[in-house]
Amino acid sequence: MKVPLVPALLLCAWLRAAVLRTAGHSGRTTVAPASGLNITFDSRTMILSWSCKDNTSLSRCILIHKKDGPIEYRLRNKQCFCTFREVTLHGGVTFEVHVQTSQGEFQEKMPYPNSGREGSAARNFSCFIYNADFMNCSWARGPTAPCDVQYSLSIRDSKGRREIPCPYYTQDAGTHVGCHLNNLSGLTSRNYFLVTGTSREVGIQFFDSLLDVNKIERFDPPGNITVTCNKTQCVVRWRQPRTRQRRHFLEFRYQLHVCRQNSQPDTENTLITVQGGLDNRYNLPSSEPRAKRTVKMRTADFRILTWGPWSRPTEFGSDDGQTSSVHIYVLLVLGTLVCALFLGFLFQRCVQMQRLFPPVPKIKDKLNDENQVEDQIIWEEFPAEEGKVYREEILTVKEVA
C-alpha cells in the first residue's frame, strides 16, 4: 500500500508542533549541545573563565568540592569568569559552567584532578606565628614520594594580589621540610598556602591550605611580671604581650603556675587560669609567714586556647620562717647532746671519786648505841596478860660531863 507523500509530510509537521507545544507548557527548556565554552582555570589567580556568548541572560559557575560540596556563583549578564577564593584544590574538584542565552542553555564540565603519584604530596602541614613578627611552617615528605623529591612553598594573600615565595627553607636529607619567614608584612588576615613538588622520576601532587593568621599565632608570655605582698595576700601584675595585630584585652587568657621553691614536681604547685582584664592583676591568697615561691605565666587566645611558652619564674616570699625553725631545731638537738654529755661526765666523775676515796668506817659506841636502842623500844608491843599487873622501874643513867 502506498501512502501519498503530501499527507505524510503534513502529519509529521503536525506531530512536531504538538510535541513542541507540550514541552512549552511543561516549563522545560531545550538544552543545546555543550560546545564553544572553552573553560579554563588559572590556579594562581583562582579564576575560572570561558568564552562569552551573545545575548547571554544568565550565567552560573559551580565548583563541586569532594569535602565541602558544591559552591555556586550567579553572575551578571555579560560576565564570563568567576573567582574562587576560600577553597582548597588538593582533594580534586570539578568545575561546571551554565550559560543561558536566547539560543538556549549551554553547559560544560571540567574536572581538575591533583595529578601526580598518589601519596607523593607533602603531609602534616602546619604553620605558627611567634614573637609577633616571625612564622615557621613545617611539613613531612609524602609516603610514596621518590628520593629526589623537592618541595617548594608559596603564600598568597586572600585576594591573590601578592605571592610570597619561601625565603629560608629547613631541610631533612636535602629535602625541604620547613620554611621560616622573618617578614610578615605581605600577609593578610587569611592566606592561601601552596606546597608543590618536583621529581625527575614521577609527577608530584600538590598540597594547599587556607590559614587564618589570628588562629595560628602563639602569644608571647606577659611582660613585666611583678609580685607585691602584704600580711594576707600577694598581688601579681603583668603587661599584655605584644601581638601581630592589635587585640582587645578580653581576647587574652592567662595561666599562672605558682610553686614552692625547691619542691618536687607536682607537689605544692598551683595552676590558675585568669581572663584578661583592663588592669591585668590577680590576688593570690598568701598569709604570713610564707615560704619562698615562684610564679610563671603564659598566654593564649580565649577562642582557641593554644598556649604559648612560659615566662621566666618570678620569686616572692622568703625563707625566714623556715630558716628560724631549722635553727631552733638544731639548737634544741645540740642543747640536748650537751646536757647528756655533761650528766654523763658528772656520773663518771662520782664513780671515780668513790673508787679513789671509799667511806671510812665509824667507831661503834656501845654505851650510846645500847641507850639509843633501849630508848627506841616500844613497850606497847608487849601487852600484859589479862588480870595481871606488872610494875617495873626504869632507871635512866645519864653521863654528866
Q: In terms of topology, how is this protein built?
A:
Elements: H1 5-26, E1 40-42, E2 47-49, E3 56-65, E4 69-75, E5 81-83, E6 93-101, E7 104-112, E8 123-130, E9 134-140, E10 150-157, E11 163-165, E12 168-172, E13 175-181, E14 190-198, E15 207-212, H2 213-216, E16 223-229, E17 233-239, E18 252-260, E19 269-275, E20 281-285, E21 293-301, E22 314-316, H3 320-356, H4 366-375
Antiparallel strand pairs: 1-2, 2-5, 3-4, 3-6, 6-7, 8-9, 9-13, 10-11, 10-14, 12-13, 14-15, 16-17, 17-20, 18-19, 18-21, 21-22
The overall pLDDT, averaged over residues, is: 79
Q: Which sequence of SSEs, written as H and E, runs from N to C?
A: HEEEEEEEEEEEEEEEHEEEEEEEHH
Distance between the termini: 200 Å
- Give unreliable regions as ranges: 5-34
Q: Note the beta-strand portion.
A: 35-45%
What is the C-alpha radius of gyration, as a whole number of Å? 52 Å
As a percent range, the share of helical residues equals: 10-25%
Shape designation: elongated
Reading side by side through the largest sheet, how are the strands ordered?
Answer: 4-3-6-7
User: Which class do the helix and strand fractions yield?
Assistant: alpha+beta
Summarize the structure.
With 401 residues, the chain is an alpha+beta fold. It contains four helices and 22 strands. Helix content is 18%, strand content 36%.
